[in-house]
Design goal:
heterodimer, A: mainly alpha, MetI-like fold, 13 helices, globular, B: mainly alpha, 14 helices
Chain lengths: 289, 321
């Protein structure tokens, strides 16, 4: 989309431009202040934080960032236990979430087979019909299946393909020209080869964008872990527990703030490095079904 | 009378087509199986639970409990009527105020206003930090010695004693208005990713030809940008309608898992009940009441969503004309 050329605009548009710029700057400040405050608080000592929580640090205690790795713990779980859980949840959840959505969307977008319309209609139905309050029933099922605090089976519940990612992938696969896949088919390429060597490379930006978005969500997920994986806390749930506990432990507040900064850095870098990819590839068209 | 004979055409598929069918079915098999277990079975089970006693007999008592919880606290100690009222208030603000503002702000960012890249990164920071970290930082900001309370006191605002001792989330008069204010500010730049993707697909040529025809900045927005991204707007609005009672606005985190004072939403209410069940264990819990809440709300939301979707489709037809 073309850039607004400020100098060439009439006065009315110039005033609107400046007004929006002021609003954008104000909103940015509002979004940055808590982060900056968290950073400054992470450099204080515990007593200094409680004495003047919104003041400037008298001394800069960067060693708090090292102390996180030994002092950020909850019950028997160390920082590294939680980091390990965060990492493997991320790998498993992102893989199953992204691939199940892509594998459902691909045949529905590009193959004609009996039942195709029905499945597509059901996917759209599941996306737009709000069925509320099934959480307790799901917990009952998970309990019956032995999936509570079971790290090996919980990933099945993450493999939901009937979601927003499907809508993005369906649009992407539909938009890829049939020419290459038909030519490959005439040359004798198998369906699997066409999928992995022709379609996936062309759909890579959308797949990567969905995977990155999913990774950010999984990294920060606490509610699922709180319900189903309480014995395997990740960093997000660990931060929730540690924040509550740190009110009663001397000198631990700055450790908490240092931990929030450390846990946020990977996702901020991941997003900043891929912002263009995410913003230009995550879009949803109409819901016809 | 001549009898009409209908001959059914028997479709014969080639070997290659059958191979394609097999491939397609193989790909969709796992997602469908997962859907059948974790969506169809779970939701059907939830509906049956709403009409059952703990021993499995048919009953309507669960619904009686739901309707009586409009006027008094339910068995989980929460005010369902208040949750419903708060959810609707938040939905109106999010979708009738914040969403239109987001459509405009994202458009202006997409037109590359000065610093647009930096602003976008700033606005996404709460999502990147995650709700646990972000809500905890916001809670410190509105605590009794936080920046916000100090600022309000310094401009001469009279605050309840409870706020001066424990912060804005501690007093009934200020807790929910504070939540609304935070949600509104964050909502002005929500849905940024999806809308940016939609705007970026509008061809530049359309804007150039409109410019040649003398269209101004706002005319371009109203007559070109909005119609071009209308399918995306309609999709987001449909999802918004579905979310009336599922969005929890992070109440669990803001209220330290209590929903008090007066901050409870339906999304929180249902999560809180599931959390309580998870603490007690499935064998010690009654599932009928939460299932009845879910069924009642689904029945309330369904016509809203269907009518809303129909209206959005009609609007899309008008836009396409």
């Amino acid at each position: 989309m073309a850039e607004i050329k400020f100098r060439k605009q009439p006065l009315q548009v110039k005033i609107t431009y400046i007004a929006f710029l002021i609003i954008f700057i104000a909103l940015a400040v509002i979004h940055l202040v808590p982060l900056a405050w968290s950073f400054l608080s992470s450099l204080k000592t515990g007593p200094q934080y409680f004495e003047d929580s919104f003041g400037w640090p008298k001394e800069w205690h960067f060693e708090n960032y090292i102390r996180v790795f030994s002092e950020f713990k909850y019950k028997n779980f160390s920082y590294f236990d939680m980091l390990f859980n965060s990492l493997w949840y991320l790998v498993v959840a992102v893989t199953v979430e992204t691939f199940t959505s892509a594998l459902l969307a691909y045949p529905l977008a590009r193959y004609r087979f009996p039942g195709r319309e029905l499945i597509y209609t059901v996917v759209i139905f599941a996306n737009i019909i709000p069925i509320i309050g099934s959480g307790p029933a799901k917990f009952k099922l998970m309990d019956a299946l032995g999936m509570i605090n079971n790290p090996w089976t919980i990933w099945i519940s993450w493999a939901n393909a009937f979601d927003f990612a499907f809508i993005v992938f369906y649009g992407t696969f539909k938009g890829i020209s049939m020419t290459y896949s038909e030519a490959a088919k005439m040359d004798g390429a198998s369906n699997i080869r066409i999928l992995f060597q022709i379609i996936f490379p062309q759909a890579f930006p959308s797949i990567a964008a969905i995977a990155i978005t999913s990774a950010i969500n999984v990294w920060n997920a606490y509610s699922t872990v709180m319900l189903y994986l309480r014995n395997y806390p990740n960093l997000a749930y660990g931060l929730y527990l540690f924040d509550g506990a740190s009110n009663y432990v001397e000198d631990s507040k700055p450790i908490y703030f240092a931990a929030t900064i450390i846990s946020s850095i990977p996702v901020i870098i991941l997003y900043a490095a891929n912002q263009k990819l995410i913003l230009s590839n995550i879009t949803a068209g109409g819901l016809k079904g | 009378m001549e009898q009409e004979v209908v001959k059914h055409k028997i479709v014969k598929y080639s070997k290659f087509e059958k191979r394609d069918f097999f491939f397609a079915y193989a790909l969709v098999a796992f997602p469908i199986l997962q859907f059948l277990v974790f969506w169809v079975y779970v939701n059907a089970s939830s509906i049956f639970l709403a009409f059952q006693t703990e021993t499995g007999e048919f009953t309507l008592l669960n619904f009686k409990a739901v309707f009586s919880s409009f006027t008094k606290l339910d068995t989980f100690g929460l005010d369902f009527g208040k949750s419903l009222q708060n959810s609707m208030t938040l939905w109106v603000i999010n979708h009738l105020v914040c969403f239109p503002v987001t459509v405009v702000t994202t458009y202006i960012l997409q037109r590359k206003i000065w610093g647009h890249y930096l602003w976008r990164v700033c606005y996404i920071i709460p999502s990147l930090m995650g709700s646990v970290v972000w809500t905890s930082l916001v809670k410190y900001m509105v605590s009794y010695d936080g920046l916000i309370v100090n600022a309000l006191v310094s401009i001469g605002m009279e605050l309840p004693e409870m706020v001066l001792r424990n912060g804005l989330f501690a007093a009934e008069e200020t807790a929910f208005p504070t939540l609304i204010t935070i949600t509104t500010i964050m909502g002005f730049v929500g849905n940024n990713a999806v809308l940016t993707g939609a705007y970026s697909r509008v061809p530049d040529e359309i804007f150039e030809s409109a410019k040649l025809d003398g269209a101004g900045f706002w005319r371009e927005f109203i007559s070109i940008a909005v119609p071009c991204v209308w399918p995306t707007l309609a999709t987001l609005m449909t999802f918004g309608l579905c979310g009336i009672f599922t969005a929890d606005a992070n109440v669990f985190l803001y209220s330290n898992g209590t929903g008090k004072p007066g901050m409870s939403t339906v999304g929180f209410h249902l999560y809180y009940i599931t959390y309580q069940i998870s603490m007690r264990g499935a064998s010690n819990s009654a599932f009928g009441y939460p299932a009845a809440i879910g069924f009642t709300l689904t029945m309330m939301t369904l016509p809203i969503v269907l009518i809303g979707r129909w209206a959005l489709e009609k609007m899309q037809e008008a836009v396409e004309l």
